[in-house]
From TrEMBL:
Nucleotide-binding keyword on record: no
Domain HTH lysR-type: 1-59
Protein name stated in the entry: LysR family transcriptional regulator
InterPro entries: LysR-type_TF_proteobact-type (IPR058163), LysR_HTH_N (IPR000847), LysR_subst-bd (IPR005119), WH-like_DNA-bd_sf (IPR036388), WH_DNA-bd_sf (IPR036390)
UniProt keywords, alphabetically: DNA-binding, Transcription, Transcription regulation
UniProt similarity note: Belongs to the LysR transcriptional regulatory family.
SUPFAM superfamilies found in the cross-reference section: Periplasmic binding protein-like II, Winged helix' DNA-binding domain
Length: 302
Protein backbone atom coordinates (compact mmCIF):
# COMPACT_ATOMS: atom_id res chain seq x y z
CA UNK A 1 0.00 0.00 0.00
CA UNK A 2 1.21 3.48 -0.89
CA UNK A 3 0.37 5.13 2.45
CA UNK A 4 0.45 8.76 1.24
CA UNK A 5 -1.69 7.93 -1.79
CA UNK A 6 -4.18 6.03 0.37
CA UNK A 7 -4.45 8.91 2.85
CA UNK A 8 -4.92 11.41 0.00
CA UNK A 9 -7.66 9.27 -1.54
CA UNK A 10 -9.39 8.87 1.83
CA UNK A 11 -9.33 12.62 2.40
CA UNK A 12 -10.87 13.44 -0.98
CA UNK A 13 -13.57 10.79 -0.60
CA UNK A 14 -14.64 12.36 2.69
CA UNK A 15 -14.45 15.94 1.38
CA UNK A 16 -16.30 15.26 -1.88
CA UNK A 17 -18.80 12.81 -0.41
CA UNK A 18 -18.46 10.03 -2.97
CA UNK A 19 -16.01 7.55 -4.44
CA UNK A 20 -16.91 8.63 -7.97
CA UNK A 21 -16.24 12.33 -7.31
CA UNK A 22 -12.92 11.50 -5.63
CA UNK A 23 -11.92 9.33 -8.58
CA UNK A 24 -12.63 12.16 -11.03
CA UNK A 25 -10.83 14.70 -8.86
CA UNK A 26 -7.71 12.52 -8.52
CA UNK A 27 -7.78 11.18 -12.11
CA UNK A 28 -8.14 7.61 -10.84
CA UNK A 29 -10.58 4.83 -11.60
CA UNK A 30 -13.37 4.19 -9.13
CA UNK A 31 -11.89 0.74 -8.56
CA UNK A 32 -8.52 2.29 -7.63
CA UNK A 33 -10.24 4.56 -5.11
CA UNK A 34 -12.05 1.60 -3.55
CA UNK A 35 -8.82 -0.40 -3.42
CA UNK A 36 -7.01 2.39 -1.55
CA UNK A 37 -9.81 2.72 1.01
CA UNK A 38 -10.02 -1.06 1.50
CA UNK A 39 -6.26 -1.37 1.98
CA UNK A 40 -6.27 1.49 4.47
CA UNK A 41 -9.14 -0.06 6.46
CA UNK A 42 -7.40 -3.47 6.43
CA UNK A 43 -4.19 -1.85 7.66
CA UNK A 44 -5.99 -0.02 10.46
CA UNK A 45 -8.29 -2.98 11.20
CA UNK A 46 -11.17 -0.55 11.50
CA UNK A 47 -13.95 0.63 9.17
CA UNK A 48 -13.55 4.28 8.11
CA UNK A 49 -16.43 4.66 5.64
CA UNK A 50 -19.67 2.69 5.58
CA UNK A 51 -21.05 2.45 2.05
CA UNK A 52 -24.02 0.95 0.28
CA UNK A 53 -24.87 0.94 -3.41
CA UNK A 54 -26.40 4.42 -3.04
CA UNK A 55 -24.94 6.12 0.01
CA UNK A 56 -21.83 6.43 2.15
CA UNK A 57 -21.13 7.93 5.53
CA UNK A 58 -18.00 8.27 7.59
CA UNK A 59 -17.73 6.34 10.86
CA UNK A 60 -16.79 7.96 14.16
CA UNK A 61 -13.32 6.44 13.86
CA UNK A 62 -13.16 7.65 10.29
CA UNK A 63 -14.03 11.23 11.26
CA UNK A 64 -11.36 11.31 13.93
CA UNK A 65 -8.83 9.80 11.53
CA UNK A 66 -9.81 12.30 8.81
CA UNK A 67 -9.13 15.26 11.12
CA UNK A 68 -5.66 13.94 11.95
CA UNK A 69 -4.90 13.00 8.35
CA UNK A 70 -5.76 16.49 7.01
CA UNK A 71 -3.30 18.08 9.42
CA UNK A 72 -0.54 15.61 8.47
CA UNK A 73 -1.05 16.00 4.72
CA UNK A 74 -1.18 19.79 4.98
CA UNK A 75 2.04 19.86 6.99
CA UNK A 76 3.71 17.58 4.44
CA UNK A 77 2.61 19.81 1.56
CA UNK A 78 3.92 22.88 3.40
CA UNK A 79 7.26 21.18 4.02
CA UNK A 80 7.58 20.30 0.34
CA UNK A 81 6.73 23.85 -0.75
CA UNK A 82 9.18 25.45 1.67
CA UNK A 83 12.08 23.45 0.22
CA UNK A 84 11.06 23.66 -3.45
CA UNK A 85 10.46 27.40 -3.44
CA UNK A 86 13.28 28.53 -1.15
CA UNK A 87 15.94 27.83 -3.78
CA UNK A 88 14.13 29.38 -6.76
CA UNK A 89 12.62 32.60 -8.01
CA UNK A 90 8.86 32.73 -7.72
CA UNK A 91 7.56 30.39 -10.40
CA UNK A 92 4.54 28.24 -11.01
CA UNK A 93 1.02 29.56 -10.59
CA UNK A 94 -1.27 31.32 -8.14
CA UNK A 95 -5.06 31.26 -8.22
CA UNK A 96 -6.71 34.25 -6.55
CA UNK A 97 -10.38 34.90 -5.74
CA UNK A 98 -11.46 38.54 -5.41
CA UNK A 99 -14.80 40.39 -5.30
CA UNK A 100 -15.73 41.78 -8.70
CA UNK A 101 -15.94 45.54 -8.05
CA UNK A 102 -13.16 45.72 -5.49
CA UNK A 103 -11.06 43.53 -7.71
CA UNK A 104 -11.37 45.89 -10.67
CA UNK A 105 -10.91 49.07 -8.65
CA UNK A 106 -8.20 48.09 -6.16
CA UNK A 107 -6.91 44.52 -6.20
CA UNK A 108 -6.18 43.91 -9.88
CA UNK A 109 -3.78 46.90 -10.20
CA UNK A 110 -1.86 45.53 -7.20
CA UNK A 111 -1.65 42.08 -8.78
CA UNK A 112 -0.44 43.57 -12.07
CA UNK A 113 2.31 45.44 -10.22
CA UNK A 114 3.26 42.22 -8.41
CA UNK A 115 3.50 40.43 -11.77
CA UNK A 116 6.09 42.97 -12.98
CA UNK A 117 8.30 41.99 -10.04
CA UNK A 118 7.81 38.26 -10.61
CA UNK A 119 7.55 37.69 -14.38
CA UNK A 120 7.98 33.90 -14.12
CA UNK A 121 4.84 33.56 -12.03
CA UNK A 122 1.51 32.74 -13.70
CA UNK A 123 -1.58 34.19 -12.02
CA UNK A 124 -5.25 33.32 -12.49
CA UNK A 125 -7.75 35.77 -11.00
CA UNK A 126 -11.34 34.67 -10.38
CA UNK A 127 -13.64 37.67 -9.88
CA UNK A 128 -16.83 36.75 -8.09
CA UNK A 129 -18.67 38.47 -5.23
CA UNK A 130 -19.87 35.12 -3.84
CA UNK A 131 -17.73 33.29 -1.31
CA UNK A 132 -16.20 30.17 -2.80
CA UNK A 133 -14.69 27.11 -1.13
CA UNK A 134 -10.97 27.81 -1.40
CA UNK A 135 -9.83 24.22 -0.92
CA UNK A 136 -12.47 22.68 -3.19
CA UNK A 137 -11.79 25.21 -5.97
CA UNK A 138 -7.99 25.11 -5.64
CA UNK A 139 -7.78 28.78 -4.61
CA UNK A 140 -4.45 29.91 -3.10
CA UNK A 141 -5.56 33.34 -1.87
CA UNK A 142 -8.93 35.09 -1.52
CA UNK A 143 -9.77 38.71 -0.73
CA UNK A 144 -12.80 38.95 1.51
CA UNK A 145 -14.65 41.35 3.74
CA UNK A 146 -15.93 40.12 7.06
CA UNK A 147 -15.00 38.98 10.53
CA UNK A 148 -13.91 35.76 12.17
CA UNK A 149 -13.34 32.70 10.02
CA UNK A 150 -15.66 29.76 10.62
CA UNK A 151 -13.44 27.28 8.76
CA UNK A 152 -10.47 26.12 10.85
CA UNK A 153 -8.59 25.04 7.72
CA UNK A 154 -8.24 28.70 6.67
CA UNK A 155 -6.00 31.51 7.87
CA UNK A 156 -6.48 35.26 7.43
CA UNK A 157 -4.63 38.56 7.64
CA UNK A 158 -6.34 41.93 7.89
CA UNK A 159 -5.40 44.37 5.14
CA UNK A 160 -7.38 47.45 6.16
CA UNK A 161 -10.50 48.91 7.71
CA UNK A 162 -12.85 50.28 5.05
CA UNK A 163 -14.81 53.40 5.95
CA UNK A 164 -18.31 53.25 4.50
CA UNK A 165 -20.31 56.29 3.49
CA UNK A 166 -24.00 56.94 3.03
CA UNK A 167 -24.63 58.96 -0.13
CA UNK A 168 -27.08 59.78 -2.90
CA UNK A 169 -27.42 61.91 -6.03
CA UNK A 170 -28.45 65.60 -5.60
CA UNK A 171 -31.57 65.10 -7.74
CA UNK A 172 -32.80 62.26 -5.53
CA UNK A 173 -32.22 64.22 -2.32
CA UNK A 174 -33.95 67.30 -3.68
CA UNK A 175 -37.19 65.38 -4.21
CA UNK A 176 -36.95 62.97 -1.24
CA UNK A 177 -38.34 63.31 2.33
CA UNK A 178 -36.23 65.00 5.00
CA UNK A 179 -33.41 62.91 6.41
CA UNK A 180 -32.23 64.00 9.86
CA UNK A 181 -31.18 60.73 11.51
CA UNK A 182 -30.60 57.12 10.44
CA UNK A 183 -34.07 55.87 11.40
CA UNK A 184 -35.51 58.24 8.75
CA UNK A 185 -33.99 55.91 6.11
CA UNK A 186 -37.06 53.67 6.28
CA UNK A 187 -38.95 56.47 4.47
CA UNK A 188 -36.39 56.47 1.64
CA UNK A 189 -35.46 54.40 -1.38
CA UNK A 190 -32.37 52.48 -0.22
CA UNK A 191 -30.21 50.58 -2.69
CA UNK A 192 -29.09 47.16 -1.45
CA UNK A 193 -25.88 45.21 -2.03
CA UNK A 194 -27.27 41.67 -1.83
CA UNK A 195 -24.07 39.85 -0.82
CA UNK A 196 -23.50 41.98 2.28
CA UNK A 197 -23.67 40.12 5.59
CA UNK A 198 -25.99 42.92 6.77
CA UNK A 199 -27.71 43.80 3.50
CA UNK A 200 -30.86 45.35 5.02
CA UNK A 201 -29.59 46.06 8.53
CA UNK A 202 -27.48 49.22 8.69
CA UNK A 203 -25.76 50.30 11.91
CA UNK A 204 -24.74 53.89 12.66
CA UNK A 205 -22.89 55.62 15.52
CA UNK A 206 -23.00 59.37 16.12
CA UNK A 207 -19.64 60.96 15.33
CA UNK A 208 -19.71 63.17 18.44
CA UNK A 209 -21.28 60.73 20.89
CA UNK A 210 -20.43 57.03 20.64
CA UNK A 211 -23.27 56.17 23.01
CA UNK A 212 -25.79 57.21 20.34
CA UNK A 213 -26.29 54.15 18.14
CA UNK A 214 -29.10 53.51 15.69
CA UNK A 215 -29.71 50.22 13.88
CA UNK A 216 -32.04 50.45 10.93
CA UNK A 217 -33.94 47.50 9.44
CA UNK A 218 -34.68 48.57 5.89
CA UNK A 219 -37.87 47.65 4.03
CA UNK A 220 -37.60 46.13 0.52
CA UNK A 221 -36.07 48.74 -1.77
CA UNK A 222 -36.31 49.54 -5.47
CA UNK A 223 -32.98 47.99 -6.45
CA UNK A 224 -31.00 45.00 -5.18
CA UNK A 225 -27.78 43.95 -6.91
CA UNK A 226 -24.73 41.79 -6.20
CA UNK A 227 -22.19 44.26 -7.56
CA UNK A 228 -20.88 47.47 -5.98
CA UNK A 229 -20.20 49.31 -9.24
CA UNK A 230 -23.73 48.60 -10.47
CA UNK A 231 -25.06 49.87 -7.14
CA UNK A 232 -23.09 53.10 -7.51
CA UNK A 233 -24.43 53.60 -11.05
CA UNK A 234 -28.00 53.27 -9.76
CA UNK A 235 -27.33 55.89 -7.09
CA UNK A 236 -25.76 58.29 -9.61
CA UNK A 237 -28.88 57.86 -11.76
CA UNK A 238 -30.99 59.11 -8.84
CA UNK A 239 -32.64 55.86 -7.77
CA UNK A 240 -31.90 56.13 -4.05
CA UNK A 241 -29.42 56.08 -1.18
CA UNK A 242 -26.53 53.65 -0.98
CA UNK A 243 -24.02 52.55 1.64
CA UNK A 244 -20.63 51.55 0.23
CA UNK A 245 -16.94 51.71 1.13
CA UNK A 246 -15.66 55.22 0.48
CA UNK A 247 -13.08 54.01 -2.02
CA UNK A 248 -15.96 52.98 -4.33
CA UNK A 249 -17.52 56.45 -4.45
CA UNK A 250 -14.63 58.82 -3.70
CA UNK A 251 -14.45 60.17 -7.25
CA UNK A 252 -18.22 60.78 -7.42
CA UNK A 253 -18.21 62.54 -4.05
CA UNK A 254 -15.43 64.86 -5.17
CA UNK A 255 -17.19 65.64 -8.46
CA UNK A 256 -20.57 66.24 -6.80
CA UNK A 257 -22.39 63.44 -8.63
CA UNK A 258 -23.03 61.99 -5.18
CA UNK A 259 -23.48 63.82 -1.87
CA UNK A 260 -22.73 62.49 1.60
CA UNK A 261 -25.89 61.90 3.63
CA UNK A 262 -26.03 62.20 7.44
CA UNK A 263 -22.38 63.27 7.77
CA UNK A 264 -22.62 63.42 11.58
CA UNK A 265 -23.36 59.69 11.71
CA UNK A 266 -20.71 57.03 10.99
CA UNK A 267 -21.73 53.74 9.41
CA UNK A 268 -20.22 50.53 10.73
CA UNK A 269 -16.84 49.93 9.08
CA UNK A 270 -15.96 46.74 7.26
CA UNK A 271 -12.60 44.98 7.39
CA UNK A 272 -10.80 43.65 4.33
CA UNK A 273 -8.94 40.37 4.74
CA UNK A 274 -6.67 38.18 2.68
CA UNK A 275 -7.64 34.55 3.32
CA UNK A 276 -5.69 31.43 2.43
CA UNK A 277 -5.77 27.68 3.19
CA UNK A 278 -3.77 26.55 6.20
CA UNK A 279 -1.52 24.30 4.12
CA UNK A 280 -0.46 27.27 1.95
CA UNK A 281 0.99 29.08 4.96
CA UNK A 282 4.59 28.09 4.13
CA UNK A 283 4.31 28.76 0.39
CA UNK A 284 6.85 31.41 -0.57
CA UNK A 285 4.76 32.79 -3.43
CA UNK A 286 1.62 32.99 -1.27
CA UNK A 287 3.51 34.78 1.49
CA UNK A 288 5.14 37.11 -1.03
CA UNK A 289 1.81 38.23 -2.50
CA UNK A 290 0.20 38.63 0.93
CA UNK A 291 3.12 40.76 2.14
CA UNK A 292 2.99 42.81 -1.07
CA UNK A 293 -0.72 43.53 -0.62
CA UNK A 294 -0.33 44.34 3.07
CA UNK A 295 2.49 46.78 2.30
CA UNK A 296 0.44 48.43 -0.43
CA UNK A 297 -2.58 49.02 1.78
CA UNK A 298 -0.42 50.11 4.71
CA UNK A 299 1.29 52.77 2.58
CA UNK A 300 -2.12 54.00 1.37
CA UNK A 301 -3.37 54.74 4.88
CA UNK A 302 -3.41 58.43 5.91
Amino acid sequence: MDKIRALTVFRRVVELGSFKAAAEDLALSKAAVSKNINELEDYLKSPLINRTTRNMHITDQGQHYYNRVCHILDELASADLSVIESSHNLTGSLKISVPMSLGILEINPIICEFMHQHPELSIEVVMNDQYVDLIDRGIDIAIRGGGELSNSSLRSRKLLEMERVLCAAPDYLAAAPDLREPRDLIQHQCLIYSFSSSARRWLFTHADDATQVQEVDLPPGPYVVNNGIALKQAACAGHGILLLPKLFVDKELKSGRLITVLPTWQAETHSLYVVYPYHKEQSQKVRALIDFMAEHFSSDQP
